[in-house]
Amino acid sequence: MGNKNRHTRGTNQNSQSSRSHAIFTIYCNTKHKKDSPHTSHTKGVLHTINYGSSREIGKLQSVGPKTAQHISLFRDIKGKLSKLSDLKQIPGWGTKKFDRFVEQNLLKEELL
């Protein structure tokens, strides 16, 4: 289905740019049962988005409306990421691991 819905449009860097994007959603559900009859639940959701060719946007000589829209969306995502500190509380997602994940996967874009 992904290849069927794939679109191409030329840029100054690549005449057949695929602009392939990927969206991954990670669901984390945990149950904590202590020495009580009640069980506590912790739930978290992390959406990650990878925009194809996003690292190369700064090299383009002209920016059209779609590219400008993507740049705006990148900045919006970065702003929302700063509010995801609750994910650091999920078991196995300590502060260092979360920060490293964000840095390696999302904040390495030069535009942000």
Question: Any key phrases for this structure?
Answer:
112 residues, alpha+beta, two-stranded antiparallel sheet, 2 helices, 2 strands, 23% strand
Helix fraction?
Answer: 25-40%
Q: In order across it, which strands form the biggest sheet?
A: 1-2
Structural category: alpha+beta
- String of helices and strands: EEHH
> N- to C-terminal separation?
30 Å
Given the C-alpha coordinates, what overall shape results?
elongated
The DSSP helix count reads 2
Q: Give the integer mean of the pLDDT values.
A: 64
* Main sheet summary: 2 strands, antiparallel
DSSP strand tally:
2
- Unreliable stretches (pLDDT < 50, length at least 5) are none
Radius of gyration, in angstroms, nearest whole number: 19 Å
Pfam family, one: Kinesin
GO molecular function: ATP binding; microtubule binding; microtubule motor activity
Domain Kinesin motor: 1-112
Protein name: Kinesin-like protein KIF3A
Structure description:
The protein is of the alpha+beta class and 112 residues long. The chain is built from 2 helices and 2 strands; from the N terminus they run ββαα. It has one domain (21-105). It has a two-stranded antiparallel sheet with strand order 1-2. Helix content is 25%, strand content 23%. The mean pLDDT is 64.
